[in-house]
Amino acid sequence: FKLPSDSFKYLSWCDLQEHDVRGNQLRCPRVREGPSEEELFFRGEEHTLKKRKQVTETEKWQKKLQENWENCAELNLSFQDLGDLYQVENFNRILRRLIRVEKLWLVDNSLTDLSAVRLPRCKELNVSKNHFTSFKKLPKIPQIRHLSLAENNIMTLSGISALRHTPLESLILKRNPCEFQENYRQLVFSSLPNLKTLDGVPQLPEDCSPPEINFLSKMCTIL
């Protein structure tokens, strides 16, 4: 049975009438867009379609102002369930508008590559439980101080030097394959001079010593 709200289930809050909620007032919004008209037809959900009028440039500009993502300072976009390409594209569109965000959570979104995104003021970023395979796939975060990459698929520490010139103080890499690399803690601290805490553990005296070099791998034995 259809619920009275069925005709609104794919509607953005921007399209609702008689309210003045702005994007920067939302703390945990769902940013997914609804399916296309063709997909709704094949799903048998064409009853959810609204008569679409011609949208003027003024209305487009008013919608952009209402979304107001540029003024978000703190935002949680975790658990978005981005199952379709058009949802991923809308998600990335919003990320590119977060020019003033300082705290951002993107947990469990099946993300693999945000290298085209720049977050110039972000100081705290949580991208745990995603599918990142390299530090090079992270967004540009020049002001980052606290970064969580727990439960991704980062195999090696290659590319971590991209964070070297940031004020990064705290890094979490728990449950990534690179955690089992030999001299893991020493390598991370030697690569990030401002780092104070790794995986919740403050820097220890033994973390300050340079990583041991295995000279045996460079020697040959003459019999």
UniProtKB/TrEMBL annotation:
Keywords: Leucine-rich repeat, Repeat. Transmembrane segments: none annotated. SUPFAM superfamilies: L domain-like. InterPro entries: Leu-rich_rpt, LRR_dom_sf. The keyword Repeat applies. It comes from the Eukaryota. This is Protein tilB. The keyword Chaperone does not apply.
